[in-house]
Design brief:
The structure is a homodimer. Chain A is mainly α. The radius of gyration of chain A is 20 Å and the shape is elongated. The interface between A and B is large, with 57 and 57 residues.
């Protein structure tokens, strides 16, 4: 499994001619790294003398962000599986009309799965950005840059997810599914460019 | 060494209360993932019938981006070492005036090292963005999203490097060094926000 591979091995496989792991796994890792940095800022705020007033809040953020990290880590594999399912569907036989129908149904089903994974990644990454703001504002100032890097990393994951959603919706025939997916994507992206920029500026002011 | 740790272990240590690995290592990994994705697009373009005209260019990009990936991978460790050197300098004795002078010199020296690493990361990440455009424009359209994710990932690395440079320059007394570092940073960041957005739009059009 990818999450058990060393970072060096993962990068080697990523760079290779094999299409998986690809951008989808990178997105999940970025989201998980963002979540991990938020968790680190929480840890380095809890128990510090000047931050007693925010300890309850930091405990709550830590709990939520650790769950997000675990979710995002699982998306590394989910993305590869979803991609492999699409490839498997495309390689089904297409000799007879019945074959063609079966193959088309399988492709459409797999494409929907491959759309769902980056949408879920986008949702988790958006939440990581929101939690980055909380720890950038109220967490230990000594690690404010890590809160900033968390937001920038999670925003890259969010924006990249949008590409991974759209590459699949382009081939999906169920127009209701496509419309709903793109609407959800728009909702998840809304305001996040400005929000990330605002967190970046906030961190710069704290340095 | 971090690059030998599994992705899951790395994320665990990143999330922990230990300040290293932190944002600096995340930046190096993001840059390296961006480089790896560019390499993957090159591999999946080379040898394909419709892309013979760009094969020489793809070979050149591949060679350069694989060197960048290796450089960025080494920055994971370099960042931790630079941070540890700063921490070690701060914990030097400060009992006598001579101690204080020695400690101050050591801190200043270590801070310069800790500024150099993210600057070098920023330089490599900027180049990854430039190479992402080449493969997004002329590489295999089937993996255009991966070229887009490469650009977004490398841009997050570039922007995050800026925070890691500034957190150190804030404590450096050598104003010439600070001015030159910030000038170099500005040069590296210049135009990259628009360029990344433009690559993102280009990829969206290809889907």
């Amino acid at each position: 499994m990818i999450k058990d591979a060393s970072i060096e091995q993962f990068l080697e496989t990523l760079a290779s001619r094999s299409p998986t792991p690809g951008g989808g796994s990178v997105v999940a890792i970025m989201g998980a790294m963002g979540a991990a940095l938020v968790a680190m800022v929480c840890h380095l705020t809890l128990g510090k003398v000047h931050y007693e007033a925010v300890s309850e809040e930091m405990e709550a953020v830590l709990l939520e962000v650790e769950a997000l990290r675990s979710t995002l880590l699982n998306f590394i594999r989910a993305d590869v599986e979803a991609f492999d399912a699409v490839m498997a569907a495309y390689s089904l036989p297409k000799a007879t009309d019945e074959d063609k129908v079966k193959r088309s149904v399988a492709i459409q089903w797999a494409l929907k799965g491959a759309t769902r994974v980056p949408l879920d990644c986008a949702k988790a990454s958006r939440r990581v950005i929101e939690l980055s703001r909380l720890v950038a504002e109220r967490g230990n100032t000594n690690v404010a840059t890590d809160a900033g890097v968390a937001a920038l990393t999670a925003f890259a994951a969010l924006r990249s997810s949008a590409l991974n959603v759209r590459v699949n919706t382009g081939s999906i025939k169920d127009s209701d599914f496509v419309r709903e997916s793109l609407l959800e994507l728009d909702r998840l992206m809304a305001g996040m460019d400005q929000e990330t920029h605002s967190i970046y500026q906030l961190v710069l002011q704290k340095l």
